Amino acid sequence: MSMAWVFAEYGLADGTMSVAGRGAMGRVWRLDSGGRSYAMKEFFWAGLDERAVHEEAALRDRAVELGLRAPLNLPTTSGRYLAERDGVQVRLYSWADGVPGSPAGAEEVGTVLGTLHATALATERPVDPWYDRVAAPGRWSEIPEAAPYEERLAELAALVRPADPGRARLCHLDMKQSNLMRAPDGGLVVLDWDNAGPGVPEQELAGTLLRWHHHDGEVDGGGVKATVAAYRRACGLEPPGGLGAFSMEVAVLLNYLDAQARLAADEGAEPEHRRFAVDAVADVLAKLPTMEAFERVLDAAAQHAGPPLRRGLRPGR
């Protein structure tokens, strides 16, 4: 379908648009209008909530006040962030240029995540089940590709527990290398805030340590320690203290596997989405973490050096 209606919805002069990329949940377009560039995200499945988007924008704005960089959320002419037509929801952001092949370092990601958690923004919304519930154990036997991994999947699923609502704060919830972009001036820009919502900071830290420092079955202990030290300097919170800290990361991993497996098997789904899902299932299964990896991350995190430089965590504005 044509997306040209977006220009009018966001008060932009007519211009050009081209696809800049895609992920599991949406496609990113570059819009050029009136001498400026914008990023528009087209969500494959509707259902986003305006109130949740406003909380996400508040988290982004507070994090920027504390020193992070992130694209600006741009409203429609009616003051909403979400625009919708014919069942398609979109959002618009300022465009940010990046330098390919310049990943964030261990200390940098610790500083970014620590600054995000220093916002300490509370929310009345509960943690979404995507982050603290998983499918029944029998589900994995229904996925043909998962058959060789059933035992490990069951072991991982046993780690998932409902999040403590008293510990939940607004979190980014999608902290990965592709969402920290190196700007031309060398700084980092935090991208893809669309998942932001209630989460437990300790669990987001544990998941980030695993994503950054666990590759091909090996854990970079020095990297873990550097990230934790920078994180504590930024927000003062303690490192993860037990296997339960990986509950959210495991829930996301298994729920993503479940969702992509269902999509891959859906003969009525668009071919583009099915192809993406088939590749995603194979990728997740090939990179399943082990309990040993969790333990090694925890051991390294406990050895971090240096006292925290507390930024006065308190309920955010």
Task: Provide structural commentary.
The longest helix is centred in the C-terminal third of the chain and has 19 residues, at 247-265. Strands 1, 2, 3, 4, 5 and 6 form a six-stranded antiparallel β-sheet that branches. The protein has a two-stranded antiparallel ribbon with strand order 7-10. It contains nine helices and twelve strands. Helix 5 packs antiparallel against helix 6 and helix 6 (221-235) crosses helix 9 (291-302). Strand 1 and strand 2 form a beta hairpin. It is an alpha+beta fold. The protein is globular and about 55 Å long. GO terms for molecular function: kinase activity. Pfam families: APH.
Task: Give the structure's gist in a few sentences.
This protein folds into two domains: 5-60 and 70-94, Phosphorylase Kinase, domain 1, CATH 3.30.200; 106-302, Aminoglycoside 3'-phosphotransferase, Chain: A, domain 2, CATH 3.90.1200.
Q: What CATH first level of the largest domain would be assigned?
A: Alpha Beta
Q: Tell me roughly what share of residues is in helical segments.
A: 25-40%
Count of separate DSSP helical elements: 9
What about the largest sheet?
A: 6 strands, antiparallel
Unreliable runs:
310-317
**Number of E-state strands:** 12
State mean pLDDT (0 to 100 scale). Answer: 92
By CATH, the architecture of the largest domain is named: Alpha-Beta Complex
Which secondary-structure class do the elements indicate? alpha+beta
Q: If you compute it from the alpha carbons, what radius of gyration comes out, rounded to the nearest whole angstrom? A: 20 Å
- Output the helix-strand order: HEEEHEEEHHEEEEHEEHHHH
CATH-derived topology of the largest domain? Aminoglycoside 3'-phosphotransferase, Chain: A, domain 2
> In total, how many domains does the architecture comprise?
2
Query: How many angstroms does the end-to-end distance come to?
Result: 40 Å
User: Which band does the percent of strand residues land in?
Assistant: 15-25%
Overall geometry: globular
Pfam family, one: APH
InterPro entries: Aminoglycoside_PTrfase, Kinase-like_dom_sf
GO molecular function: kinase activity
Protein name: Ser/Thr protein kinase RdoA (MazF antagonist)
